[in-house]
Amino acid sequence: MTVSAEIQALVDRETEAWNTKDAEALVDLFHSDTVWPWPPNAKSHDPETWVMPMGRFNRARWKESWEDLFASHELVHNRRKTVKIVVTPEEDGAFAVVDVDTLWKNSKTSQTSHWRGRACKIYTKTSERWYFLFQTGLLNYQD
Question: What does the buried/exposed string (b/e) look like for 34-60 if buried means 16 or more CB atoms within 10 Å of the residue's CB?
């Protein structure tokens, strides 16, 4: 399997974890040093406006956060398309550009939360395996 195929497999595993609301599968993708800044909206290209809603990766805390989301929301749709994969010459780092269109609906209030935009998902290879290390928040690059 090529490194690009391995990275695509990671993107696919993440997509499947969202589709099946599998918090354990999600946290299994993350490197222990992951931090994840997030823009307040898809037009916030300036990182000065970004926030850090979850802190450094903590398996139990992140898993609980996603389990709470899954318990309180219906997944209406989750469309993801890999636009590009780039691998370092050393084949120890890579990124995938992924267009995301994920719609959640609160089970009690019917309020929707639409995750829509382009992400750059960064991966690192350790002696053990490939891990998700970082992702830019979902940004709209169409305008």
Answer: bebeebeebebeeeeeeeeebeebeee
Q: Is residue 133 a contact partner of residue 115, using CB atoms and an 8 Å limit?
A: no
Q: How far is CA 96 from the centre of its chain?
A: 11
Three-point CA angle 81, 12, 57, nearest 5°: 105
| Average pLDDT value over all residues in the chain | 94
60-76 pLDDT, tens per residue? 999 999 999 999 999 99
Phi, psi dihedrals of residue 121, rounded to the nearest 5°: -95, 120
Rounded Cα gap, residues 2 and 18, in angstroms: 25
Which letter does DSSP use for residue 30 in this model?
B
DSSP one-letter string for 32-74: TT----B-SSTT--SGGG-B-SS-S--HHHHHHHHHHHHHHEE
User: What pTM does this model have?
Assistant: 0.92
Q: How many CB atoms lie within 10 A of CB 132?
A: 22
